[in-house]
Amino acid sequence: MIACLLVEDDIEIRTLLEGYLSGYGMTVTAVSTAQAMREALKAQSFDVMLLDLMLPDGNGLDICRQIRGASVMPIIMLTAQGDPVSRVIGLELGADDYLGKPFEPRELVARIHAVLRRARGAPVRSDKGPEPVAHFQGWVFDRVKRRLTSPERVMVDLSSAEFRLLSVLIEHPGQVLSRDRLVDMTRMPGALVSDRSVDLTISRLRHKLRDAGEGGGLIRTMRGEGYLFATQVQT
């Protein structure tokens, strides 16, 4: 099991990531300050650190340099700043990766696995993580390549929101997922997702599935309950 130290002062992002990463089989210690981070590091060891660039009592770049001087633990820096100079400096100071907000939680999971593979020299997978490729009724959904192919070999262009929502539905075939749960499972840190946006994204997905290969009936509306991905999925 991956032990992750999350250092993030935004309570909404911190809570979201803590729950999301825990769902992928990671043990997450979440703190909001540099001081709390130091106390956590004294109390136990971690496999990876997710470090916000701007903290109320410290600068992420300075913290990264200090940690790298005493530890080889992989560090992924999280920031709302799109400044390429900060990114380069962070990497030069020893950060293993750098992710700008808003980002998709699944991308963060993939990057955690990548830095751990590089650090350990061996494949690392979360037992609870989804398989990269899913098959259903002749369709092929590739999470790595972000590609959906119909039974007629038609490539379906998906927006980021459509990709996230379809990925969640495919992970839970035959299960009714409420709008609230879909909002929680597809929310990106730093971005808003609402019930209405879920409905609109479902509508667009149905049109694309129907137009590409008569797949419009794969996503069913369960009145008063939510949505159901109505087919078996093989991975």
Structure description:
This protein has 235 residues and is of the alpha/beta class. α6 crosses α8. The model is unreliable at 122-128 (pLDDT under 50). The strands form four sheets. A five-stranded parallel sheet has the order 2-1-3-6-7, with helices on both faces. Strands 8-9-10-11 form a four-stranded antiparallel sheet, with helices on one face. It has a three-stranded antiparallel sheet with strand order 12-14-13. The longest helix is centred in the last third of the chain and has 19 residues, at 195-213. It has two domains: 3-120, Response regulator (Rossmann fold, 3-Layer(aba) Sandwich); 133-229, Arc Repressor Mutant, subunit A, CATH 1.10.10. 41% of the residues lie in helices and 22% in strands. It is built from eight helices and 14 strands. A hairpin with a 2-residue loop joins β8 and β9 (139-142). The radius of gyration is 19 Å and the shape is elongated. The protein has helices spanning 11-23, 34-43, 60-68, 84-92, 105-120, 160-171, 179-186, 195-213, and strands at residues 3-7, 27-31, 48-52, 54-55, 58-59, 75-79, 97-100, 133-136, 139-142, 147-149, 155-156, 176-177, 219-222, 226-229. It starts with a strand and ends in a 6-residue tail after the last strand.
